[in-house]
Amino acid sequence: MQRIAVLTSGGDSPGMNAAIRAVVRKAIYHGLEVIGIQRGFSGFIEADMGPMNLGSVADIIHRGGTILRTARSEEFKTSRGRARAFENVERYGIQGLVVIGGDGSFRGAEIFHNEYNIPVIGVPGTIDNDISGTEYSIGFDTAINTVVEAINKIRDTATSHERTFILEVMGRESGYIALMAGLAGGAESILIPELNFSINDVCEKLYRGYKRGKLHSIIVVAEGAASGIDISKQIKEQTGLETKVTILGHLQRGGTPTAFDRILASRMGAKAVELLMSSYVKHMVGMVEGRIVAAPLEAAFEEKKPIDLEVYNLAGILSI
Ligand code: F6P
Q1: Angstrom distance (rounded) from CA 320 to CA 298
Q2: 102 lines ligand 1 (CB under 6 A)
Q3: What domains are defined for the chain?
Q4: DSSP SS3 for 244
Q5: Residue 215: which pLDDT band, with cuts at 50, 70 and 90?
Q6: Is the CB of 11 within 6 Å of ligand 1?
Q7: Pocket residue to mutate for ligand 1, from 128, 144, 305, most atoms within 8 A of Cβ
Q8: pTM of the prediction?
Q9: Ligand 1: does its nearest atom lie under 6 Å from the Cβ of 170?
Q10: CB atoms within 10 A of CB 233
């Protein structure tokens, strides 16, 4: 293997830059050449790519977003789009591809490998932490720290005004951000899509708190479970209680990556290069029990990543 390419795809996540840096520098260390593809699979199709060197990734380890930019490519979902991308594989002499992104990006990479037999390695990069086969994805730690910071600030107002706040967080179909940030922020209720919840229980908990003299509360809602505004309306209907809703939105995606995400990204990016050099052809990198390991690419999306029930139950006990 002499020349590999790297791209970032799907939603950006903090630490993607650290992963790009690791891929480029580890590859160069081993004498490989690296092509950087811009705008994910869109740039792959449109030949928006060029060589990277040690200097291309200088001064980026601390920056959020992705210097390679990113996109969600509809065209790569078509066989015509992938055929155009393969023309560029041949034109640029690319012998292996590192895809940094979420499960949708991994699916695209898998189909591409099946059709054209080019080795692909996935590096999990998404704030959602919804990729099976890894305990952590790059960007999740930074995102939950952002949410916890928001909870802290909102709690100041909640206690001062004796109010109930509802905080809607991202995660698509996954409740990982809500659960972990809710636990770390001491949220009174956490609503996630993986588990059924009842508004009655939420109201009951609020009521119990009121009886004990607790006049403020924070409810964290994963966007995949319900909209914060709907929850607020339902609470109003059942209890007459006014609640304030904050939708954190895209501010959860940006920002300087935490040390954890930088270390994870550095280790995973380097491992991806090692896997390509060791003739792995359709794999992902994952963190399992603290170790960086390889798993078949399908492991990322064949099964939905389960939520940690123990953590969920603990959050309930601690927020009584
Ligand atoms: O997958 C990351 C994510 O931020 C999800 O949590 C969210 O649902 C989605 O992307 C938003 O996508 P977009 O930035 O395209 O609106």
Answers
A1: 40
A2: yes
A3: 3-139+257-300 (3.40.50.450), 143-254 (3.40.50.460)
A4: strand
A5: confident
A6: yes
A7: 128
A8: 0.97
A9: yes
A10: 14
